[in-house]
Amino acid sequence: MKRQSVIFSAPGQVTICDESLAEPAPNQVLVQTLVSAISPGTELLVYRGQFPEQLPVDDSIVSLAQEFRYPLRYGYSCVGRVVALGAQAERHWEGRLVFAFQPHTSHFLAEPQELMPVPTGIEPENAIFLPNMETTVNFCMDGVPLIGERVAVFGQGIVGLLTVMLLAQFPLDSLVTLDRYPLRRKASLQAGAHASLDADARDTLEQLRDLQPGGADLVYELSGSPLALDQAIAAAAFSGRVVVGSWYGKKRAELDLGGRFHRNRIRLISSQVSTISPELSGRWDKKRRFEVAWEMIRRLQPRRYITHHMEVNDAPAAYRLLDQRPEETIQVVLEYPR
Questions:
Q1: 148 touches 171 (CB < 8 A)
Q2: pLDDT at residue 130 above 60?
Q3: Same domain, residue pair 115 and 34
Q4: Which one, of 224, 221, 223, lies nearest residue 251 by Cα?
Q5: In-domain check, residue 175
Q6: Domain co-membership, 65 together with 39
Q7: Phi, psi (5° rounding) for residue 157?
């Protein structure tokens, strides 16, 4: 059979390839993709060629066991239906709606242990948010927001918005966000932020300090811009925590570590979803964290943040949109023939 796959062939170049796909091996199943989500932060680094070469894409995911180099298949949020079984695959998989950490493609082969059944009652357009929701759950686990704390979040792309949705459930003193784009600031207020500031305004930090006197107890840097990390440090209170959830790839920026950072005993926390903090791993594993992420998807219905539905053949246009007109987008979803 034939399938359509999205290939990053060079910086700024995305192609759609028609490929042959073998029949399922005895222990495999064939999944027909319904929708896949573009992760604008990470995937734009791939699109722009800003990834560090020779770095493994993700050793913990079978479908991403490769290095960052062109040509590259990438993406990690596919929802589809099992349409064929290998001879030894268990029959209960047939027809199941499943999630997979797979690059963007219309069909793929996988062993059942690489798939996650989508819980009953969760639609495909909500299920594709699982990776980002797991990431935001991990941010909360790493940042440990406390009752009555002042929290600031830099960046209100989809990961930032989902983080705000989770943080809004905590009894915080204040929750303030910052972003360049009006569309995202509006969405941030709807997600539960008490205020959302223009990150490009000249007096942004002054506005933030007016809203959070003494500084923020907890700051999340989720903008994808290393320049924002300097602002995040400046926004933190004495002994404040700055959770760095962005992946900067090869982007670099100077940091002012000689002033507030040094005197105020600010802590920088690297948060990455592939692992669980050692302080928690004795009681938590990825299965338990996924269960929480699914429950948050069921409760929060993140599909509301899908701004664009585009056919897989239009994937090159989708990446150009994200690259050139990000102010118009929050979540872009690719759809596949059914």
A1: yes
A2: yes
A3: yes
A4: 224
A5: yes
A6: yes
A7: -70, -170
